[in-house]
Specification:
By secondary structure, this protein is an alpha+beta fold. Helices cover 20% and strands 29% of the residues.
């Protein structure tokens, strides 16, 4: 597993299983958060790297697909910490309904293991440490305002420094997914950190071209 320093507070852990799989560790004021947990074989190493940086405070998920929650059990077997995912994802992760675009339900976590982040009166997700969660359809992305890094999960892939659409076979509604990329225009991050690809700097310079694919 490769450990990359994305910014002063954010580390990206990359491994390969047919394609690149990534998770993130984010240093906070008094500990660390893990964002996504990759495949099962990644769990122990993610925890080991996280504990080098501080006390683990919680796990945040961009969404509930198996390649983002696979390492969860290995981590929670050692550390009992809260796990957050958007409320819309919980029924899919617990196997009550199939994920959008899929025919068969998958029970990926036991009932009650994951919880939604707190919401403000207006419905916006509240900050978790120094991360600002934003809900896009089928996803939560996490923005670190001080480092100007957007942890985007599967919102994008990339090639040669260019933003590319998410993987089609794992995307229920591609038009909606591309439209969700407008969050880049709103936040103007310096870096978009991508799960299945290399990170992209100054994404605002190419986001209009990307959105024109719709």
């Amino acid at each position: 597993m490769k450990v990359l320093k994305v910014s002063p507070h954010i580390y990206k852990l990359e491994s390969w299983f047919l394609l690149k799989m990534s998770a993130w560790i984010v240093r906070d004021d008094d500990g660390v958060y893990i964002v996504d947990t990759g495949m099962e074989f990644m769990g122990k190493r993610i925890l080991k790297e996280a504990e080098k940086l501080g006390k683990l405070k919680g796990i945040l998920l961009t969404h509930g697909h198996s390649d983002h929650v696979g390492g969860l059990k290995k981590i929670l077997d050692v550390k009992k910490v809260p796990v957050y995912v958007h409320k819309h994802e919980i029924k899919y992760m617990e196997g009550k309904e199939p994920f959008p675009g899929r025919k068969k339900a998958q029970s990926l976590v036991p009932p009650g293991l994951v919880q939604p982040p707190e919401e403000s009166d207006g419905g916006a997700l509240k900050n978790i440490g120094n991360l600002i969660p934003f809900h896009t359809p089928g996803h939560v992305v996490y923005y670190h305002e001080k480092d100007r890094v957007l942890i985007s999960g599967d919102l994008f892939t990339s090639k040669k420094g260019q933003l590319k659409p998410p993987i089609a076979m794992f995307t229920a509604n591609m038009e909606e997914a591309i439209e969700s990329a407008r969050i880049v225009k709103q936040l103007n991050p310096h870096i978009v950190s991508i799960c299945h690809g290399d990170d992209v700097e100054e994404p605002h310079k190419q986001i209009d071209k990307y959105l024109a694919q719709i």
